[in-house]
Write a structure and sequence with these properties.
The chain has about 140 residues and is α+β, with helices and mostly antiparallel strands. It has a single domain, classed as Roll (Thiol Ester Dehydrase, Chain A), CATH 3.10.129.10. About 20% of the residues lie in helices and about 35% in strands. It has helices at about 30-45, 50-55, 130-135; strands at about 10-15, 60, 60-70, 80-90, 90-100, 105-115, 115. A five-stranded antiparallel beta sheet has the order 1-4-5-6-3, with helices on one face. The protein has a two-stranded antiparallel sheet with strand order 2-7. Strand 5 and strand 6 (about 105-115) form a beta hairpin. It starts with 7 loop residues before the first strand and ends in an 8-residue tail after the last helix.
């Protein structure tokens, strides 16, 4: 984003009964699945999906995941899950996420990924087109 604006992508997700626990709230680990859903669609909005990246020889395994829980979600809630790329330094990419219901922040967090080769599974400099598409210029910063 040349003007300093951060590109975000938001998806909607209605909580199915299977996502809830015995206390009638969304099971805490499911929020990482929600982050994954939003991250997939964010990358697609940037013009890349995981399958495209893999075909080009690059994978993005999770190195770190972090969640802060503010309020619970329940069965049949309609959630808005927003994702954005907050940093791309060297081979590390961080995607932030927020989960809201009717504007109320329920969960926030991030996942950090490492660019690796699909052949060696070792860290490797990301594809320049990928870095540029995410708004970080020609080189990861």
């Amino acid at each position: 984003m040349d003007n300093g604006e951060v590109f975000t992508h938001t998806i909607s997700y209605r909580v199915p009964y299977a996502d809830t626990d015995q206390m009638d709230v969304v099971y805490y680990a499911n929020y990482l699945v929600y982050f994954e859903r939003a991250r997939n669609e964010l990358l697609r909005a940037y013009g890349f999906c995981y399958r495209d990246l893999e075909k080009l020889g690059m994978a993005l395994p999770v190195r770190e995941a972090h969640c802060v829980y503010h309020a619970p979600a329940h069965y049949d809630d309609l959630l808005e899950i927003k994702a954005w790329c907050s940093s791309f330094k060297g081979v590390r990419l961080t995607i932030n996420c927020e989960v809201r219901r009717d504007g109320e922040l329920l969960v926030e967090g991030y996942t950090t990924h490492v660019c690796v080769s699909t052949k060696t599974f070792r860290p490797e400099k990301p594809l320049p087109a990928f870095v540029k598409a995410l708004g970080f210029g020609g080189d990861a910063q």
